[in-house]
């Protein structure tokens, strides 16, 4: 296994800069995820690590070895793609065994050793009964697991997994996530995992980066990324319902600092909160504006006002889930505000309730994401 380190890596396609000075470290034996929306550059980074794409500038290391100039066969990586890339004329067994037979790896396994390796990984992924089938006789989920088995069957320094379970149904996806995590822990594998699904990244990762338009927005543990998002983009991308992002004006009256969102709600910013807001103020239309962020689970609902930072709004909609409810409020500018309650919500549509923001979980950002009725888009 190897540590993978990127230092100021840039990738140009003609005049277009796809990757903009990306740096991060995936330690040896770590399960490391790259999370981002379509077009963020996730697969491009994976391909540069694998040697499929060249690096325009910057450095890629395996441990202390510079490897970005080496051809793929000299990097000892194994890669699984979102597309299956199975050989249609080969059986499932032969597809999985193919990397073990490739001359470039010089493994020279005996038939018995090869059979043991293939059976081990196939059994691990629950596809050992499919050995004699051809790819055209498999379901999409089965093809996905065969492709994954082919990537994991060979002992590589680094495993590069590009949305490898994207086409599995919800039940299979959950069980395969468990197997991937178990595989990484059992073999001490270095895994770099690309996904657009924040749930996968949070569930699987030891460390992760959030990528946006070829730039790292945040690197950290899943807990750090979820509970302390550094930008409004990270807060909006990671979470369901997403983090509430509310544009408002910061008003200074002597020693008092207040956050105001139209006539819907106003509350004082005390101590550290006031300082955080001042750090990210942007002048917009001659007003000092900030973007307030708070996760839905950090807003409390009540029938009475519980603090000076409480305000009342009518409920727009309530969705009941198995162990919680999501309550939606609609502000006058058509921004939606989401609250997640613990257990079944006792309030109904149009009922006016008090919302109390937990000051320990309020964040302030410079605005980079537009929030509309349908969700969010980048500015």
Which secondary structure elements does this structure contain, and how are they paired or packed?
Elements lengths: L3 E10 L2 E11 L4 E5 L6 H9 L6 E6 L2 E2 L10 E4 L11 H10 L9 H15 L14 H13 L5 E5 L7 H18 L3 E5 L2 H7 L2 E6 L2 E6 L1 H6 L4 H6 L6 E10 L2 E6 L3 E4 L2 H9 L2 E3 L2 E8 L4 E4 L7 E11 L3 E7 L5 E7 L9 E6 L5 E3 L3 E4 L2 E4 L1
Parallel strand pairs: 3-8, 3-9, 6-7, 7-8
Antiparallel strand pairs: 1-2, 1-4, 4-5, 9-10, 11-12, 11-15, 12-13, 14-15, 15-21, 16-20, 17-18, 17-20, 18-19, 22-23
Helix pairs in contact: 2-3, 2-4, 3-4
How would you concisely characterize the structure shown here?
With 379 residues, the chain is α+β, with helices and mostly antiparallel strands. It is built from 9 helices and 23 strands.
Q: Mind explaining what this structure looks like?
A:
The chain is built from 9 helices and 23 strands. The chain has 379 residues and is of the alpha+beta class. The strands form 5 sheets. It has a 6-stranded mixed β-sheet, with helices on both faces. Strands 11, 12, 13, 14, 15 and 21 form a 6-stranded antiparallel β-sheet that branches. The protein has a 5-stranded antiparallel β-sheet with strand order 16-20-17-18-19, with no helix packed on it. The longest helix is centred in the middle third of the chain and has 18 residues. The chain starts with a strand and ends with a strand.
């Amino acid at each position: 296994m190897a540590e993978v380190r990127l230092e100021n890596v840039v990738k140009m396609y003609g005049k277009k800069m796809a990757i903009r000075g990306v740096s991060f470290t995936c330690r040896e034996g770590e399960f490391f995820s790259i999370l981002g929306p379509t077009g963020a550059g996730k697969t491009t980074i994976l391909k540069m690590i694998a040697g499929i794409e060249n690096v325009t500038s910057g450095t890629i290391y395996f441990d202390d070895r510079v490897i970005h100039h080496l051809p793929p066969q000299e990097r000892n990586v194994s890669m699984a793609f979102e597309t299956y890339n199975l050989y249609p004329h080969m059986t499932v067994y032969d597809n999985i065994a193919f990397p073990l037979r490739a001359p470039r790896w010089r493994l020279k396994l005996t038939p018995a050793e090869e059979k043991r390796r293939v059976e081990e990984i196939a059994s691990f992924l629950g596809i050992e009964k499919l050995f004699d089938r051809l790819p055209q006789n498999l379901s999409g989920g089965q093809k996905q697991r065969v492709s994954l088995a082919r990537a994991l069957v060979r002992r590589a320094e680094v495993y590069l997994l590009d949305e490898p379970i994207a086409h599995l149904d919800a039940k299979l996806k959950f069980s395969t996530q468990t197997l991937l995590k178990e595989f990484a822990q059992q073999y001490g594998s270095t895994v770099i995992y690309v996904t657009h699904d924040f749930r996968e990244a949070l569930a699987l990762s030891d460390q992760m980066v959030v990528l946006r338009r070829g730039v790292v927005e945040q690197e950290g543990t899943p807990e750090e990324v979820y509970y302390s998002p550094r930008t409004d983009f990270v807060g909006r991308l990671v979470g369901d319902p997403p983090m509430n992002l509310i544009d408002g004006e910061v008003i200074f009256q002597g020693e008092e600092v207040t956050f105001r969102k139209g006539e819907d709600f106003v509350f004082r910013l005390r101590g550290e909160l006031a300082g955080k807001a001042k750090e990210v103020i942007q002048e917009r239309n001659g007003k000092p504006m900030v973007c307030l962020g708070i996760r839905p689970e950090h807003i409390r609902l009540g029938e009475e006002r519980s603090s000076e930072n409480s305000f009342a709004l009518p409920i727009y909609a309530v969705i009941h889930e198995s162990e919680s409810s999501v309550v939606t409020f609609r502000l006058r500018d058509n921004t939606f505000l989401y609250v997640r309650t613990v257990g079944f919500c006792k309030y109904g549509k149009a009922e006016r309730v008090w919302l109390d923001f937990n000051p320990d979980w309020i964040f302030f950002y410079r605005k980079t994401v537009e929030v509309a009725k349908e969700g969010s888009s980048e500015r």
